[in-house]
Amino acid sequence: MQITIIQNIEKDLQLAKSEAKQLIEDIDQRIKEKGQICTQILGNQGKISTLESDSSTLCQKKNVSHMAFEFCNKIITIFYNLILHLKARTEFRTIICIATLTLELIQQERVNLSTKLSEKSAYYAKLADDLNTKLQKQQDFKSSTLFEYSFSPVREWLWPTLVWQDFNGQGHNRRENWRFSGNCGSENCLNADNLDNDEKEVMKNLDAAHAKFDLVTQLKSKLVSDNSKAKQSIELVRRRINGFKSQLKEMDRRTLEEELTALLSDKAGESEYLQSLHQQIDKLKGISHILKCACGKEYEVEVDLGSK
């Protein structure tokens, strides 16, 4: 009986020892886990402090970027207003430049028309004199030819034929009677072929004179038409000149040329300045900055000119 009790007590002691050993192992495991948890907590606290520092740095950079953005917007606004001012000034100067060029072109056109009119008048006057001279020569030739035949037997045949062709203009010889005075000998007999040749030559000269006279008439009518067109052009030029402002009318040619030269030089300078402004605006549009977060993400900050 006692032996059984002792054996039971020994079993209980061994069980208690095993439980105590297991408890000690559990306590050691809990201590290890507690150390790991503390280590993780410390690591997380370090990450939190790092994130807080990154957040503050990011806020500072964001403020700097915002200030840079505001500064760029102010610069762009100033450039935009300056461009509008220069554009208005350029439009005014462009109007003056166009008016000056128009006045100069009108004056050149007026001078060219006057020159052409004078040249045409001189040409037509010379042509008319030449034709009148040739016509007078033809008339003198006709008179001399008729005078030569006035005291010969040819007069009775040639004179009616010339008068008929001159006034009737049909070009056919109508000879009703052939009358010759004297005997038909070697001295007084006329050669019909020679008479026909002389008649043809005289009538040919007369036809040429009439054609030249018609040409002179046509040229005179053309000269009148050209004079009318030139007068209309001059009147149109005067109307355009009257349409200008009194300040432009009072300015002389040299002053207008100087003003035009100054305007062209100013326009060239303003074009270069505007080009440089556009280049600076393009540079401002290209401003950008990349911010890297501690979490690994990257953010790009750039100037937005879409509202402008």
Describe this structure in words.
- By secondary structure, the protein is mainly α.
- The chain has one domain (2-302).
- Helices cover 82% and strands 3% of the residues.
- The chain has helices spanning 2-150, 155-168, 192-242, 246-250, 253-285; strands spanning 288-292, 298-302.
- The protein is rod-shaped.
- Residues 148-192 have low confidence and may be disordered.
- Residues 6-33 form a coiled coil.
What's the layout of helices and strands?
Elements: H1 2-150, H2 155-168, H3 192-242, H4 246-250, H5 253-285, E1 288-292, E2 298-302
Antiparallel strand pairs: 1-2
Helix pairs in contact: 1-3, 1-5, 2-3
Number of domains: 1
**What characterizes the major β-sheet?**
2 strands, antiparallel
The helical percent reads: over 70%
Shape: rod-shaped
Structural class, by secondary structure, is mainly alpha
Q: Beta fraction of the residues?
A: under 5%
* Spans of at least 5 consecutive residues with low confidence: 148-192
Number of helices: 5
Roughly what is the average pLDDT, rounded to an integer? 69
Order of helices and strands: HHHHHEE
- The main sheet orders its strands as 1-2
Oligomer state of the chains in this structure: single chain
Give the beta-strand count.
2
Give the radius of gyration. 60 Å
Distance between the termini: 107 Å
